[in-house]
Amino acid sequence: MRRKLVIGNWKMNGNRAGNTALLSGIIAGLNDFGADCAVCVPAPYLAQCQAELQDSPVAWGAQDLSVHAAGAYTGEVSAAMLVDFGARYVLCGHSERRAYHKESSELVAQKAVAALAAGLTPVVCVGETLEQREAGETESVICGQLQAVLDAVAADDLAKIVVAYEPVWAIGTGKTATPQIAQEAHALLRARVAQKNAPVAAGMQILYGGSMKPDNAKELMAQPDIDGGLIGGAALKAADFLGIIQAV
Ligand SMILES: O=C(CO)COP(=O)(O)O
């Protein structure tokens, strides 16, 4: 049985006082729901997570990292720095990074490799745009994005990856993928991993992201290949985030 995982992606939101309120609200409402839970926060707030979450069941992580270990890379943050602040997860290749920062699948794969080398769990994000879906390219796009990572990561590390399917047309739009559409994509992704290593594919956590809310989470997470959620907007309110975790 794969354990469910719910990760909140705060994107570029938050401030110290608001974060404290949100994190303490999450901690106060968490019971043993049988799911793992984490927040991926803007890098400046990793220290705050370390201070406020360290004795809680909530893990924390970052939204991006550099492929470089150290050196003259102004503005970048290394995997080792994230580890220094207790991060466990790091998003790699979120669609907003791919779209606004022109991150290629090859770069995303290198980021996953850098994360793994430092002991972080990369959450590799894949997803098609509406245009690509309407052109019948969903499978080639999402499996191509995943394949770059499968090709780059050492066989021993494959089992340490988390994948997130986030259809771009469902992110922040209120248009959730139907459970059937999401399940179909998740099954394709799992089958692609299975071509490389079937036992790893069977154990891999594949999360859904895109307008997941307390009222649609249950049906999505009931699908056989959906192992949790990567939550944007609904992760910014403790009640909504807890509602999604509870849906597990
Ligand atoms: O991009 C997302 C999480 O990474 C999803 O965002 P929303 O939940 O706001 O649609």
Automatic annotation (TrEMBL):
<dbReference type="InterPro" id="IPR000652">
    <property type="entry name" value="Triosephosphate_isomerase"/>
</dbReference>
<keyword id="KW-0963">Cytoplasm</keyword>
<dbReference type="InterPro" id="IPR022896">
    <property type="entry name" value="TrioseP_Isoase_bac/euk"/>
</dbReference>
<comment type="subunit">
    <text>Homodimer.</text>
</comment>
<dbReference type="GO" id="GO:0019563">
    <property type="term" value="P:glycerol catabolic process"/>
</dbReference>
<dbReference type="GO" id="GO:0006096">
    <property type="term" value="P:glycolytic process"/>
</dbReference>
<dbReference type="Pfam" id="PF00121">
    <property type="entry name" value="TIM"/>
</dbReference>
<dbReference type="InterPro" id="IPR035990">
    <property type="entry name" value="TIM_sf"/>
</dbReference>
<feature type="active site" description="Electrophile">
    <location>
        <position position="94"/>
    </location>
</feature>
<dbReference type="GO" id="GO:0006094">
    <property type="term" value="P:gluconeogenesis"/>
</dbReference>
<dbReference type="GO" id="GO:0005829">
    <property type="term" value="C:cytosol"/>
</dbReference>
<dbReference type="GO" id="GO:0004807">
    <property type="term" value="F:triose-phosphate isomerase activity"/>
</dbReference>
<feature type="binding site">
    <location>
        <position position="211"/>
    </location>
    <ligand>
        <name>substrate</name>
    </ligand>
</feature>
<dbReference type="GO" id="GO:0046166">
    <property type="term" value="P:glyceraldehyde-3-phosphate biosynthetic process"/>
</dbReference>
<comment type="pathway">
    <text>Carbohydrate metabolism; erythritol degradation.</text>
</comment>
<comment type="function">
    <text>Involved in the gluconeogenesis. Catalyzes stereospecifically the conversion of dihydroxyacetone phosphate (DHAP) to D-glyceraldehyde-3-phosphate (G3P).</text>
</comment>
<protein>
    <recommendedName>
        <fullName>Triosephosphate isomerase</fullName>
        <ecNumber>5.3.1.1</ecNumber>
    </recommendedName>
</protein>
<keyword id="KW-0413">Isomerase</keyword>
<dbReference type="InterPro" id="IPR020861">
    <property type="entry name" value="Triosephosphate_isomerase_AS"/>
</dbReference>
<feature type="active site" description="Proton acceptor">
    <location>
        <position position="166"/>
    </location>
</feature>
<feature type="binding site">
    <location>
        <position position="172"/>
    </location>
    <ligand>
        <name>substrate</name>
    </ligand>
</feature>
<comment type="pathway">
    <text>Carbohydrate biosynthesis; gluconeogenesis.</text>
</comment>
<keyword id="KW-0312">Gluconeogenesis</keyword>
<dbReference type="InterPro" id="IPR013785">
    <property type="entry name" value="Aldolase_TIM"/>
</dbReference>
<keyword id="KW-0324">Glycolysis</keyword>
<feature type="binding site">
    <location>
        <begin position="232"/>
        <end position="233"/>
    </location>
    <ligand>
        <name>substrate</name>
    </ligand>
</feature>
<feature type="binding site">
    <location>
        <begin position="9"/>
        <end position="11"/>
    </location>
    <ligand>
        <name>substrate</name>
    </ligand>
</feature>
<comment type="similarity">
    <text>Belongs to the triosephosphate isomerase family.</text>
</comment>
